[in-house]
Specification:
This protein is mostly helical. It contains six helices and no strands. Helix 1 packs parallel to helix 3.
């Protein structure tokens, strides 16, 4: 096992060899015995694991109350701005009349493009097939035959 592979395993599995895959433990122990740098890296990883696995420090209730009151006061003192609306985000600080005109123009343009794209009459030679339900056909809506 190379030094780089050992350090990657320490990063992935932690400093405790019990958490390592069994097939890597023997090679890791040989690499650890041969390298003082890896032993130092393992000690740092053990210290980090101890920080993560240790008990949480106690927080005083008075400190929490002071922090909450400071946050509340800061929120009350902050200037209140108008909420950003979708129209404001899309169009910027445009006057309302201009924004309304732009919206109406876009709707009209969409209507015009849609009406030009649809054929007005069926193509020549096209026939329409119509299927009528008879009394012995089960409909999809209620399951009753009509």
């Amino acid at each position: 096992m190379t030094d780089r592979q050992f350090l990657q395993c320490v990063d992935a599995y932690g400093a405790d060899p019990v958490r390592w895959p069994p097939e890597l433990r023997a090679a890791a122990e040989r690499a650890l015995a041969a390298s003082p740098a890896l032993r130092a890296a393992l000690r740092e990883a053990e210290a980090f694991d101890a920080l993560l696995g240790g008990a949480l420090p106690m927080v005083e209730e008075a400190r929490v109350s002071r922090l909450l009151s400071a946050v509340g006061e800061a929120a009350r003192e902050a200037p209140q701005e108008a909420p950003e609306t979708l129209l404001l985000l899309l169009l910027g600080r445009m006057p309302r009349r201009m924004a309304a005109t732009l919206c109406v123009a876009l709707v009209a343009l969409g209507w015009l493009a849609g009406s030009l794209a649809l054929p007005t009459s069926p193509p020549r030679g096209a026939t329409r097939d119509v299927a009528l339900l008879s009394d012995d056909v089960v409909t999809l809506f209620d399951g009753d035959s009509r």
